[in-house]
Amino acid sequence: MVEKRKPMAVREAVQSVMNVEYTPRQEYVPLENSYGRVLAEDLVADHDVPSFDRSPYDGFAIRAEDSAGANRNNPVHLHVVGEIGAGTVFDGEVKPGQTVRIMTGAKIPAGCDAVVMLELVHEHSDEEISIKRSFSPNDNISFQGEDTKKGSSLVAKGTTINPGVTALLATFGYAEVPVALRPRVGILATGSELLEVHEPLKPGKIRNSNAYMMAAQVERAGGEPVLLGNLPDDLEACTEAAKDALKKVDILITTGGASVGDYDYVPNILRELKATTLFNKVAMRPGSVTTVGETNGQLFFGLSGNPSACFVGFELFVRPILRRALFSQKPHLRKTKAVLGMDFPKPNPFTRLVRASLDDADGHFVVEPAGLDKSGSVTSIAGADVLIVLPGGTRGYEKGMSVDILMLEDHKGSEWPWENIVASYRS
Ligand SMILES: Nc1nc2c(c(=O)[nH]1)N[C@H]1C(S)=C(S)[C@@H](COP(=O)(O)OP(=O)(O)OC[C@H]3O[C@@H](n4cnc5c(N)ncnc54)[C@H](O)[C@@H]3O)O[C@H]1N2
Ligand code: MOO
Ligand SMILES: [Mg+2]
């Protein structure tokens, strides 16, 4: 008799994985290698930006009071006492009737409180200019601290370093950046039908696509994939490989053999590893056979062999663990809403997660399946921007209904997307 499994609700299954402790660790990397990594400490301004009052224009720094009453018929003449470009400073103090030629980015000389753009100045000689209008104190000055003040919190730890964060790290002198250590994720493909990618097709065989897909998913989530190869459906070989892998990696993922068939060894491997099974059936489609075990604090994800089920299992269960290991406060896929672009008439007792493409029409997002909506499909993954969440137990869904979606290409994430997912309504 085949083993009868009790399906666990998606949110409970995700929660049970998140209940397993994982302590994030950090390392330092050179700034130029930090793009795409995750900050391991809050970034706080340790000085004002800009750190001195400076000129936003090429022009002349003046004492605003000197320009009082100036107009077209009555220009004010000033004596040029110096010239400064960005990076140089004017020593001394500018006195009444004096001005300093100043370039964009240069520090405002002592005594000056306004800048006149070159275009508004008449230059009589290197030593004398005139201006035809008056200026107020503070005109055309970039003030110390106007961008940010010393002590301000700028970027929270757990944030993925984007080019803007890189600019801040450089601004505040981070030649070495504290980043989260990437968790090492072992990937083991099981199945006697699997060929290496370079091998020609043979009857009954397929190339191992899941391992490479998951390596890319691990990278997208911020982890470090460790490809451990393919194994035939052989319990002893698979168990040995899993034992060995758990010594080398933080987290282990297998693909294939998670169901109830003759060669589906994941349950036996977990038994041999003396692992605690968190669940071996989830009320979702695809990915219902997703099995997760814990052994000595290490997680073992037995994902389905079916490519789309494997993909979805990873995004729902592995991704949040990796993001949390990277200090994220929002480790899950970001949830938002969109309008269904087509009918889903078939009722299903399980929550469906449809790989879908996201487009905009009439000012809102519309989602449609990205291809063949079957667990064994490999082609529908490439065009998937989101997973549409269709809770089970309804009569089906109609085009035009508003549905929850989980975004696949996104850095922000969500804290916990699994509350308030209700069957759709018409928008
Ligand atoms: N009697 C039942 N049969 C099945 C059930 C069930 O409940 N009762 N569940 C079905 C569901 S749902 C799924 S999903 C699959 C899960 O299969 P397994 O995790 O056991 O995976 P395999 O049987 O090893 O392979 C399934 C499928 O995927 C292909 N595959 C495997 N590995 C790879 C890989 N690395 N790259 C690409 N494709 C891969 C494999 O050739 C099979 O076609 O079970 C259903 N059956
Ligand atoms: O686990 Mo299967 O993917 O439900 O289709
Ligand atoms: Mg199977």
UniProtKB/TrEMBL annotation:
GO cellular component: cytosol
Xref: SUPFAM superfamilies: MoeA C-terminal domain-like (SSF63867), MoeA N-terminal region -like (SSF63882), Molybdenum cofactor biosynthesis proteins (SSF53218)
GO molecular function term, any single one: metal ion binding
Keywords noted in UniProt: Magnesium, Metal-binding, Molybdenum, Molybdenum cofactor biosynthesis, Transferase
Pfam family of the protein (one): MoCF_biosynth
Residues annotated as domain MoaB/Mog: 186-324
GO terms for biological process, alphabetical: Mo-molybdopterin cofactor biosynthetic process
InterPro entries (alphabetical): MoaB/Mog-like_dom_sf, MoaB/Mog_dom, MoeA-like, MoeA_C_domain_IV, MoeA_C_domain_IV_sf, MoeA_linker/N, MoeA_linker/N_sf
Enzyme Commission designation: 2.10.1.1
Cofactor(s) the protein needs: Mg(2+)
Transmembrane helix found in the keyword field: no
SMART domains per record: MoCF_biosynth (SM00852)
Coiled coil stretches, renumbered: none
CDD domains for this protein: MoeA (cd00887)
Domain of life the protein comes from: Bacteria
Job of this protein: Catalyzes the insertion of molybdate into adenylated molybdopterin with the concomitant release of AMP.
Family per record: Belongs to the MoeA family.
NCBIfam families: Glp_gephyrin, molyb_syn
Protein name: Molybdopterin molybdenumtransferase
Taxonomic source organism: Geomicrobium halophilum
UniProt lineage: Bacteria, Bacillati, Bacillota, Bacilli, Bacillales
